[in-house]
């Protein structure tokens, strides 16, 4: 897999700005700082078919009914910084989706770790049993 930043995703990204919600005073009510990044996964010329399938599968909850991958940013005070944030988040999402997960090797706990766990349980049991009322029978 080549570096994602080396590919030319910029021409396939669509941006839409709108007013952010939430607190922020007058600035929130006047300035369109919220940025929504949209990327058409299926019609992308930059991705291979295999990569498209992986992205469709792993990022299904972020892809809307029209097939667009959406990333929204409204945390920053300027539209430019929100745009930069959404682009970096977009690349991070693609990187995570296209990274192959390592196969998990089944392992057994070491003898020392088992002994340590059992000793801890025994100590805890003794501590709790010492709290109870003891009468002389």
TrEMBL record:
Q: Does the keyword Transport apply?
A: no
Residue numbers spanned by region Disordered:
1-27, 100-137
Q: Which UniProt keywords apply?
A: Hydrolase
Q: What class of enzyme is it?
A: hydrolase
Domain Prokaryotic-type class I peptide chain release factors, residue spans: 19-35
UniProt lists compositionally biased (Basic residues) regions at 100-120
Protein known as: Alternative ribosome rescue aminoacyl-tRNA hydrolase ArfB
- Species name for this entry? Pontibacter toksunensis
